[in-house]
From TrEMBL:
Name under which the protein is recorded: Selenoprotein H
Positions with biased composition (Low complexity): 8-22
UniProt region (Disordered), positions on chain: 1-76
Organism: Sesamum radiatum (Black benniseed)
GO CC annotations on file: Golgi apparatus
Length: 161
């Protein structure tokens, strides 16, 4: 328990004045700062927009597709959906992405354009063929660790061409 405070007498004002003139970081900052009047031509800070969900976002009829849905220069778009549970998914997704971008000219590879499913590693062409689909995997992700990723990449390159 904390010790009790000493009682001050009416004649002893040193403790009262010390408490009234306490120096804090804020008080020194306010005392030392020079407050400049706001400039007339300064723009007010921009407000941040809140997040929009698919239910609240309304797209006009003539709006273009979002970047993951739109192929670059008429090339194909490959979507890699990887779970965010473990870094093993991430390393394999990066390996496949780099291999496909090097192996096929004009291909666009997108990793997780939407929220991924749990325990999922899937490689597919946008709106079309599924090259690899490993769903609902549990630890230690045996089906994914058994894959030879170089072979998978070469198979996908062969199917794209």
């Amino acid at each position: 328990m904390a010790p009790k405070r000493k009682q001050t007498t009416a004649g002893d004002d040193s403790a009262a004045t010390a408490a009234a003139t306490r120096v804090t970081r804020r008080s020194t900052r306010l005392a030392n700062s020079t407050v400049a009047p706001p400039a007339a031509d300064a723009e007010p800070p921009k407000r941040k927009k809140g997040k929009t969900t698919a239910a609240t976002a309304v797209k006009p009829e003539g709006e273009a597709k979002s970047p993951p849905e739109q192929a670059a220069d008429g090339g194909k778009t490959i979507i890699i959906e990887r779970s965010t549970e473990c870094n093993r998914f991430k390393t394999r997704a990066i390996q496949v992405k780099e291999g496909l971008e090097k192996g096929v000219a004009g291909v666009k590879v997108v990793v997780n354009p939407e929220k991924p499913r749990r325990g999922c590693f899937e490689i597919r062409e946008e709106g079309g063929e599924v090259f690899l689909s490993l769903l609902d995997m549990k630890r230690p992700y045996k089906p994914m660790t058994d894959l030879d990723m170089e072979e998978v990449i070469s198979d996908i390159i062969g199917k794209i061409r």
